[in-house]
Design a protein that fits this description.
The chain is about 45% helix and about 15% strand. By secondary structure, it is an alpha/beta fold. A hairpin with a 5-residue loop joins strand 1 and strand 2. The structure holds octanoyl-coenzyme A.
Length: about 260
């Protein structure tokens, strides 16, 4: 396994089919410096390419999922250095992943940390999690989806409130708003997230990918074009052996044996 400095990776689950990535800069509350994001991108790409992995989990520690972009690193950036370096472009390695990514959030998910959670496919939270887009406090605005993804999760009024005040919201509020799909006791969060990943892992990886693609399209397009896209992916499942196996197994009253084909 590759050795990383700012993250830790592990394969978990009873079938060893879940890729776990732990953000690991505990002293900086997992502030998302560039080397961390480069490693995160590499780790996501490696798990995405590994046929034995069904789903990926990104987590932090009990104090912080991630407290945002690294303020110390970007303090002296300028408009032109951001432009020239393509500041934040490493994020695309995470958003381009074909496999499901689940964020398991304990502690702070602020700024870029909240944005990283939102670019995952599902967010599970521990009871003490705190979400927020506090960029406004430091004279900037969210730069990795906070102004675009957050309104799609929680609607305009709540997103505006979060972005314009910089106030934090707790896990239960976040669940009520639809930002988080479930809340667990702090010490149960990771095992529950692994269970979710394992449940997804019982299905055909090929079809899981197609389902993820189709749901994501809902955030890219209008309803009519989205429904057409869905239909073409749905028809496409009929070109796979796993679709045939799934329906045949149902009719023969036996569990399916998916081949990822
Ligand atoms: N960047 C760099 N260092 C940080 C960050 C950060 N975002 N957050 C915390 N740290 C460091 C602190 O500087 C401190 O380091 P040191 O011990 O060397 O002084 C250490 O982590 C511990 O932090 P605190 O002592 O502040 O811990 P507290 O428990 O007192 O407070 C808070 C916790 C409330 C989370 C507090 O640390 C805080 O407000 N952090 C900043 C939160 C923030 O403003 N985040 C938004 C950053 S801007 C952003 O994300 C822009 C998004 C753009 C795109 C995303 C790019 C990745």
């Amino acid at each position: 396994a590759p050795s990383y400095e700012n993250i830790k990776t592990k394969v978990v689950g009873s079938k060893k089919n879940v890729g776990l990535i732990q953000l690991y800069r505990p002293k900086a509350l997992n502030a998302l410096c560039k080397p961390l994001f480069q490693e995160l991108g590499q780790a996501v790409k490696a798990f995405d390419a590994d046929d034995s992995i069904s789903a990926i989990i990104i987590t932090g520690n009990e104090k912080a999922f991630a407290a945002g972009a690294d303020i110390k690193e970007m303090q002296n950036n300028s408009y032109s250095t951001n432009q020239k370096a393509g500041f934040l472009q490493e994020w695309e390695d995470v958003s381009n992943c074909g496999k499901p990514i689940i964020a398991a959030v304990n502690g702070f998910a602020l700024g870029g940390g909240c944005e990283l959670a939102m670019l995952c496919d599902i967010i599970y939270a521990g009871e003490k999690a705190k979400f927020g887009q506090p960029e406004i406090n430091i004279g900037t605005i969210p730069g990795a989806g906070g102004t675009q993804r957050l309104p799609r999760y929680v609607g305009k009024s709540k997103a505006m409130e979060i972005v314009l005040t910089g106030n934090f919201i707790d896990a239960h509020e976040a669940e009520k708003m639809g930002l988080v799909s479930r809340v667990f006791p702090v010490d149960k969060l990771l095992e529950e997230t692994i269970k979710l990943a394992e449940r997804i892992g019982t299905h055909s990886p090929l079809i899981v990918k197609m389902a993820k693609q189709a749901v994501n399209q809902a955030y890219e397009t209008n309803l009519k074009a989205g429904l057409q896209y869905e239909k073409s992916i749905f028809y496409g499942t009929f070109a796979t052996a796993d679709r045939k196996e799934g329906m045949t197994a149902f009719i023969e009253k036996r569990p399916p044996n998916f081949k990822n084909e």
